[in-house]
């Protein structure tokens, strides 16, 4: 994964030497950190409705697909308590090595787990962000039915672990409008409200943000 605009392959681009290479990419760190700031801004987007904003240190935020922790560390920098989850050991090992060097006052936990099987108790999480990782939950799902199933089950879990007024911002790269609709629908069918932000709406795929709010059970 040396070219800036090539789409990464999972898991090959995130294992062994590739995990180290990923962590050394300065443009990647910059992108991940900038996108994290955008996601945090979107969590409080007025179009999602009023939200009484507390100190960030009062919140627990989940970073789905945290990789080597560029996004997690940005969240810690901002003052959040953070749980980072990633399915690949090679990425998490680097994240935990970086943790030892950092000196954050807030709580950080790194968990080796998949987004599709979250080891988190119900109603524990205030916010969720996911940056350039959520696409991969449909890895190896070739037909529409199995894609729908995994998206639906994951959205249901996300609903359960969020607190009553919980919000999520998912940044990802859908292949086209049809795929975007599939992802958004999985959340709407599981009692979320929300909408899509795309910098270039004419673009078939491209960087896309889902802004989601849990509706009261
Ligand atoms: C672009 S990278 C990491 C982005 C991360 N936000 C950062 O700051 O480095 C995408 C990550 O998603 C992870 N991933 C892919 N599928 C996953 C899954 N099902 N559950 C958890 N993590 C997953 C990969 O292992 C990889 O570390």
> Whole-Å distance between the termini?
42 Å
The SSE order reads HHEHEHEEHEHEE
| Sheet with most strands | 7 strands, mixed
> For the record, what CATH class applies?
Alpha Beta
Strand order of the largest sheet: 3-2-1-4-5-7-6
- List the quaternary state of the chains: single chain
Describe this structure in words.
- The protein has a 7-stranded mixed sheet with strand order 3-2-1-4-5-7-6.
- The longest helix is centred in the first third of the chain and has 18 residues, at 26-43.
- The protein has a single domain, classed as Vaccinia Virus protein VP39 (Rossmann fold).
- It is an alpha/beta fold.
- β1 (60-64), α3 (70-78) and β2 form a beta-alpha-beta unit.
- The model is unreliable at 1-5 (pLDDT under 50).
- The protein is globular, with a radius of gyration of 16 Å.
- The chain has helices spanning 17-24, 26-43, 70-78, 89-101, 144-161, 177-188, and strands spanning 60-64, 81-86, 108-112, 125-131, 162-172, 192-198, 208-214.
- 38% of the residues are buried.
- Residues 10, 14, 32, 65-68, 70-71, 85-88, 91, 114-116, 131-133, 136-137 line the site of S-adenosylmethionine (SAM).
């Amino acid at each position: 994964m040396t070219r800036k605009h090539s789409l990464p392959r999972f898991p090959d681009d995130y294992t062994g030497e590739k995990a180290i290479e990923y962590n050394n990419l300065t443009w990647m760190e910059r992108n991940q950190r900038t996108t994290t700031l955008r996601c945090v801004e979107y969590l409080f987007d007025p179009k999602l409705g009023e939200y009484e904003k507390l100190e960030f240190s009062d919140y627990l935020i989940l970073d789905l697909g945290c990789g080597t922790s560029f996004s997690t560390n940005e969240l810690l920098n901002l003052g959040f308590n953070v749980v980072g989850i990633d399915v690949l050991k090679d990425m998490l090992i680097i994240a935990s090595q970086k943790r030892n060097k950092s000196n954050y006052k807030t709580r950080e936990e790194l968990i080796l787990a998949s987004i599709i099987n979250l080891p988190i108790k119900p109603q524990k999480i205030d916010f969720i962000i996911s940056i350039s990782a959520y696409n991969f939950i449909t890895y190896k799902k070739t037909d529409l039915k199995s894609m729908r199933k995994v998206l639906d089950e994951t959205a249901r879990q996300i609903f359960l672990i969020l607190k009553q007024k919980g919000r999520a911002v998912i940044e990802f790269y859908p292949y086209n409008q049809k795929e975007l609709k599939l992802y958004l629908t999985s959340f709407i069918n599981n009692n979320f409200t929300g909408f899509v932000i795309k910098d270039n709406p004419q673009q078939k795929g491209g960087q896309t943000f889902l802004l989601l709010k849990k509706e009261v059970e």
